[in-house]
Amino acid sequence: MHKTSIILFFVISGLLSSCNMFTGRGSDQPVARVKNKYLYKSDLEGIISPGTHPSDSAAIIDRYIENWVRQQIFVAEAEQNLSDDRKDFQRKVEDYRNSLIIFTYENQLVKSKLDTVISPELMAEYYEKHKDEFKLRDNIVQVRFIKLPLDAPNVNQVRRFIRSENEEDLLALEEYSLNHAASFYLEEESWFLFSDILRDIPINPQNHELFLRNNRFLERNDNYYRYFLYIKDFRLEGSPSPIAYQSDNIRAIILNKRKMDLINEYRQEIYKQAVGNGTFEIFQ
């Protein structure tokens, strides 16, 4: 298509030089028209990146012109078939512009003024006041989990260490896992969805609550691996969530409240200044 459009471009340029058939931007040359809407040569400035090959540049210009033509055709069709009140976007555009300006400035204000430091004491205080709002939707667990190849050595040590509360045993278990395990997680202070744990071990208990209440240690094999699971603690669906499991949510809630308070204080202060300065009038 680009050869045709380039030829048309020069034909149009020649016609313009011989007669004044367009009223528009003076010497600026049109490159396309849809009804009474024109696309000018100057409108194409900046759409080609520096260093673009001439053949690629021509293709980019062709696509831009084609897209512009299509858009104007569709706009003209829509304007012809929409009622006047449906086409009156001026108020909506102005409202959107005002909202965007305010939103952008308030975001800038929040970034520069918001106190983002939240102490553990404040988080604990919020949690205690709103504990009933933090009910678990799923079963969660604190676990030690190790997945070993069947030929991994010293498996009896793993059986002993994984259930131990001795710090030296746990350090030895971590070193062993780094050297021999296909995968493992020993972050026993972290909470995990029990459903996620089940994806990593070949078991499928029908009653998760019953399983959690009656199993602390589990060992399973398949054709390639041996799996060890020690359930240190668990919480059931519907029970209060541990604060550690909700720390990110609590932090986000506190920060959002601070943000809204900061914005509201800013708006009130600006309004008071405007009242004092006589910035506005309301005519009765």
Task: Give structural notes.
Helices cover 52% and strands 14% of the residues. The protein has 284 residues and is an alpha+beta fold. Among the domains are: 2-86, no CATH class; 136-235, Roll (Chitinase A, domain 3). The strands form two sheets. Strands 3, 4, 5, 6 and 7 form a five-stranded antiparallel beta sheet that branches. Helix 1 crosses helix 2. Residues 1-23 have low confidence and may be disordered.
Number of strands: 7
Counted by DSSP, the helix tally is 10
CATH third-tier fold name of the domain at 136-235: Chitinase A, domain 3
CATH architecture type of the domain at 136-235: Roll
Key words describing this protein structure:
284 residues, Chitinase A, domain 3, five-stranded antiparallel beta sheet, two-stranded antiparallel ribbon, extended, disordered N terminus
Q: What topology emerges from the helices and strands here?
A:
Elements: H1 2-18, E1 30-34, E2 37-40, H2 54-81, H3 84-87, H4 90-113, H5 120-129, E3 140-149, H6 155-161, H7 167-180, E4 183-185, E5 192-193, H8 194-198, H9 208-214, E6 217-221, E7 225-235, H10 247-277
Antiparallel strand pairs: 1-2, 3-4, 3-5, 3-7, 6-7
Helix pairs in contact: 1-2
Q: Care to give the gist of this entry?
A:
The chain has ten helices and seven strands. The chain is α+β, with helices and mostly antiparallel strands.
